[in-house]
Amino acid sequence: MKPQSDPERVLIVGRSPSVLLEAVEILRGRGFLADATNQFDSVLDEYDVAELDIVVFGGQVPPDTKQYLREQIAATNPDTTFIQGLAGIPGLIAAQVAGAGQREPANESVVSYDTERRVVQLNLDDPAHVTIDAYWHTSLTPPEPKSTSLQVLNTELAKGSHSVPLPAEVPSEAAFVTATAGTTVHAFTASPMPQRVAAGGGASSLPPVAPVTTHNHN
Hints:
This protein is of the alpha/beta class. It has helices spanning 17-29, 43-46, 63-76, 90-101, 195-199; strands at residues 9-13, 33-37, 54-57, 81-84, 111-114, 119-124, 128-139, 146-157, 160-165, 175-181, 184-191. The strands form three sheets. Strands 2-1-3-4 form a four-stranded parallel β-sheet, covered by helices on one side. Strands 8-7-10-11 form a four-stranded antiparallel β-sheet, covered by helices on one side. Residues 196-218 are annotated as: Disordered.
């Protein structure tokens, strides 16, 4: 068992080079030992999966490839946590990783998201510093989707119940929200991907991308 002080080792398996590289940069800046690749067939050769703590799969990883990698990695390292990325947005991916890597499990009764009301609901047992960020896609054109973000809240909140609505500028599709209350991180889908994107067109219909295979040598 690794000491509590050891940083988590993270591997992001996705497709978009810019998203992968920016997500790795964010995570390394936050102390994770992070890498990323879009070379699906080389994952088991390029990385020591026995050392991985968290594996993130992007939406463009074919289902059969994802299943195979999950099975092979879990057989070697059953303690690995697998995450399905909500979207190809670097900051959102980093938040999902932070949520999975936190020492205490996130308590959904403390932070939740009401999709119909577009409200983040917090029920704090103690005062806490709370940050809420919204992310959304500005372009979904493959292979390099574009996105932007908005900080909705960054303040100390008193013990008790708080409702934080999303601003009107957060769109009604392809939008996401993250909330950090104290040391716990939560990520939610605020509004779903358009149906045409959610359905997908298969890997064969996607344009080619530049290869990405990063290595953190720590």
